[in-house]
Design goal:
Order of helices and strands: HHHHHHHHEE
Distance between the termini: 50 Å
Shape: globular
Radius of gyration: 18 Å
Strand content: under 5%
Helix content: 40-55%
Strand order of the largest sheet: 1-2
Structural class: mainly alpha
Largest sheet: 2 strands, antiparallel
Length: 192
């Protein structure tokens, strides 16, 4: 992480709340939300969303969309205060980060909305921090802006690591190695 002095929790919370409100008031917000929530058979994730207990797209997509928005608003608020994109890559919980990827895939809409509201969208995979922990800086900023984050989605890093190990074992049992990054399935040998 950057060596920039981080802005106060209250400063980040106030700016993040304003950014989020402005995003939601944008004329293209409804289109952005619809596009972000448009999960087709092309969207696959083996280690992000599945760490949520009894995950279902139907029940979890809308609340996760809200959490993803909040995460992007927090990052934008830190960036506004510091001007440092590395400092703005604050710790985000894995399922929430996964949702931000769905939002970032709507590049045209998100870029246009961000420009109109005067926010900078921060995300770079090799700089991101998915080591969120309750009681840390991100948690404190979130609480100051919107209250307690939902623990269903804002999972501590150590719990995510544990759940990913459970998933990896289950995936391995059906021939999927490295948590879905490879498999040993011979489709020609499987009867149609």
């Amino acid at each position: 992480m950057s060596q920039v002095e981080m802005p106060t929790v209250d400063a980040v919370a106030g700016v993040a709340a304003r950014i989020l409100d402005n995003i939601k008031e944008d004329p293209e917000f409804a289109a952005f939300r619809a596009a972000s929530l448009e999960y087709s058979e092309d969207w696959q994730c083996f280690t992000g969303f599945p760490v949520i207990d009894r995950w279902t797209l139907e029940a979890d997509a809308q609340p996760l969309f809200e959490e993803g928005l909040r995460a992007l608003a927090l990052k934008a608020a830190v960036y506004e205060a510091t001007g440092d994109d590395q400092a703005a890559e604050i710790a985000i919980a894995v399922p929430v980060d996964e949702m931000t990827h769905a939002m970032l895939a709507q590049a045209q809409l998100l870029t246009a909305i961000a420009a109109r509201v005067g926010a900078v969208v921060i995300h770079q995979t090799d700089q991101e921090h998915t080591d969120y922990r309750a009681g840390g800086y991100t948690h404190d900023c979130y609480r100051a802006a919107w209250g307690e984050p939902p623990a269903r989605y804002w999972l501590d890093h150590e719990e995510v690591v544990r759940r990913r190990e459970v998933l990896a074992d289950l995936y391995q049992s059906i021939g999927m190695g490295r948590s879905g990054r490879e498999h040993s399935i011979d489709f020609a040998a499987v009867a149609a």
